[in-house]
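Recap from last week: sequence in, structure out.
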Amino acid sequence: MTLRTTAIIAGALGLLMMIAGLIAQGMRPEHSVVTQATLDTPVVVLAPEVLALPELQRLAVTADGGVEAHAGRPVDAVAWLGEHSATYITGYESWDILTTRTASRITADVESPSPSASAEPTASAEPSPSASPSPSPDEAGADAPEEVYDYGSGDLWRQNWAGVDRVSVAVSAVPPGEYFVVNSVDGSNLGAIEISAERQVNDAWISPLTWIGAALTALGLLAVLSALVDLRPLQERVESWTTKRSRIATGEDVKPGSRRERRLAGSTLPDVDLDENDEKDHKDQSDEKDDKDEKGGQS
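Predicted structure tokens:
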């Protein structure tokens, strides 16, 4: 398998990796999510075990009018909630749906007796004075204070927050182990609750997969282009430029007597006759042997 074929195969695999990374990037869920639930009671409650979920960041409740939020000890909150209808947020069914439980408290409204009508109307002898002009309903409603529902004493709450049409509290602001209770000021049903959470998404592999796939795709594309385009003229120009640069092929532009000329001619290496050296070494060894033999005969 040639290098070009290997590069083309790697480019095809890189293209598949890049496509998979782009699809995963498009389908990746968001890290920040806001889940809503509609409320049908004037009170909403989150227990300590729900507030302890590590993903929760912020709680917000909407209503038409004033809204109050409280944090209290479980024993105090449970005793207070026993007298009011409330919606309990119990957790997540999915990241888009909250699980809830509604506890209704039925209270009987006692109507005040209406005054009994007289049997016969009595006519007054004197004309009654003209009644003073009364304000119109619009004027009276504009100046009338907002109706406040009696939820009992608020001394049992350890922390309180208030808002108009909306109240928002960070989960970290509620002490651990305490209930979080929100109620409307006028006793009407609340609108909705919004819980902001930061979920963990395993997406660390998406970016490396995409970039590695893009690099391999570029490599394969270059290999395909090299197979389609004839690069031999370019190679010939590169070789001719290299030959001219080295000045070895023609030997031109070499100054006479320069070291380059001597190196090209091989004059820098001395001529050594190996046969002559061998004969000289053999003669020296023979003379040395004769000297030893002569000294031995004299002794």
